[in-house]
Amino acid sequence: MEHPKVAADYLEPASFFDIYNEEDFFLNNCLLKGEFIDQEKIQRPTLEQVVVNHVTFSSCDFNRADFTDVIFKSCDLSNCQLDEVSFYRVEFQNCKLIGTNFDQSYFNNVVFENCRMDMANLNRMNLKNTDFVNSSLKDVSFNENKLVKTHFRNCELTKLTALNTPLKGIDLSDCQFETIDLDRNYLRGLQVNAEQAGFLAQYFLDIKIK
Fold this sequence. Notes:
The protein is mainly beta and 210 residues long. The chain folds into 2 domains: 1-96, 3 Solenoid (Pectate Lyase C-like); 115-210. 6% of the residues lie in helices and 34% in strands. The longest helix is centred in the last third of the chain and has 12 residues, at 194-205. The chain is elongated, with a radius of gyration of 18 Å.
């Protein structure tokens, strides 16, 4: 796992709205802090070597954005459209991403830590070196994905749906879920604990566990 290559102590303070000063909607080498961004719609914005701290993006649309070496700290990106976005060496720390749409995005060296991602859409994606840590992914749509070195650590996965997604090498043993919707055809190689195995046996095979 590669971490964002950003020298946080040397970033220049800036406003997100400075992105409009560049014809190609580009921000780099800066700190964004304490802003409220409401319903902004920008096609193909680019952020490089940026720390975003306590910023709320309310129902924004950043389709086909490019985020490289970016750290989001305590941000709210709920209900934002981040579809077809490229994330490379990006970290989300203590962020709120309820209902956020990541469909058809590309994740490479991405970490979600202590995040609330309930009802988010993560479909038809390529995920490589991606970690979900101590995060809530309740009722998340996680379908038709390609997973390489993707990890879930101590996450809440109740009502997560992962259909048409090969789960070989995925370890859910220290995660929690009351119910989960997986594709029987793609379970081979999935790692679970004994309690989870009992649920899956009952769910797919109608085996009663006493």
